[in-house]
Amino acid sequence: MHLSTTLSLALAASPLAVWARGTLGFALGARKPDGTCKTVADYAEDFDTLKGKAGSTIVRTYSVVDVNVPAHRCEVAATILPAAKAKNFKVILGLWADEQESYDSEKAALQDVLTSEYAPYVYALTTGSESLYRGVSAQELLPRINDTKTSFFKLVPRIGTQQDINNATATYLDDLQQAIGHVQNLVGLNTIEIWNGETGWPGDGGSDYGDAHASTVNAEKFFKTGVCAALAWGVNVFYFEAFDESWKPNSIGDTGAEGDETHWGAFTDSRTPKFSLTC
I need a labelling partner for 94 at 20 to 30 A (CA). Which of 68, 80, 145, 263 fits? Predict the structure, then answer.
């Protein structure tokens, strides 16, 4: 139902990571069900759940600091990295970069946190999340990506971006093939590490999208036949998302209709799996 966003990591001097099969990761929110910020202990429990129930040891965030609930500013990087170190998890940290002001704030917050102690647990940095889709121009975004490279490359050699490729015309696997082929045609083979940055399906209580119906049965079917197939093909996939986020308000989609944002998790907000997460 949702998403073929591609997360591309420019490797430069870093070796290309190669897996016999793809790696499964999860998009991970920064907030508890009541909208307050997760603690180090909360993230640690998230990691225990993801490793124990899904065999996953990598997550991605969307920002260094989460300000979606103004009364509760979440210092994401400062909180998640100690948990990642304690549980030996990898994190792809996103820097929100839609405006120069937000990017500068994210960069400053990361500079305060990202030290040699925590760098081994940061798999990559991504500057911008669906920014082009929301109207940020490539000319605006590229200098921010390059600035991230200049500022953090010595600590984290994998640096890239996550952007929408709106080519959904057939099936999930066909769309992935088109997106990966498009990127490789632009930059060549074995120079860019590509992840499917988001893909998922809402469970019971979520919103339908055309003929795609939200249900836990359909979410399981998509995971087993779509995500598992992509992993078997050798594609790295971030499932959207790890846990239901019941604090979220409805969103307004591209059709102008309101859509539920609280039932996308592979787990409930109490960390109960909705279905088996093994392939």
Answer: 263
Per-residue pLDDT tens for 87-97? 999 999 999 99
Q: Which of 209, 208, 200, 279 is nearest to 245 (CA)?
A: 200
Tokens of 88: 């030996």
Task: Output the CA angle 244-216-2, nearest 5 degrees.
Answer: 70
What does residue 180 show for φ and ψ, rounded to 5 degrees? -65, -45
Q: What is the pLDDT of residues 186-240, one digit of tens each?
A: 888 777 888 998 899 999 999 998 888 999 999 999 999 999 999 999 999 999 9
Cis peptide before 258 (omega within 30 of 0): no
Burial of 255 (0-12, 13-18, 19+ CB in 10 A): exposed
Confirm whether 117 is a catalytic residue. no
To 10 degrees, what angle do helices 40-54 and 76-87 make? 50
* Tens-place pLDDT, residues 149-193: 999 999 999 999 987 765 556 688 888 888 888 888 888 877 788
Spot the catalytic one: 99, 101, 117, 130: 130
3-class SS of residue 45: helix
Q: How far apart are CA 4 and CA 166, in angstroms?
A: 8
Q: Are 93 and 84 in contact (CB under 8 A)?
A: no
Give whole-number Cα distances, 156 to 28, 64, 145, 160, 238, in Å. Answer: 20, 15, 13, 11, 20
Question: Which one from 198, 241, 245, 261 is the annotated catalytic residue?
Answer: 198
Residues near 85 by Cβ (< 8 Å), separated by ≥ 6?
A: 117, 118, 121
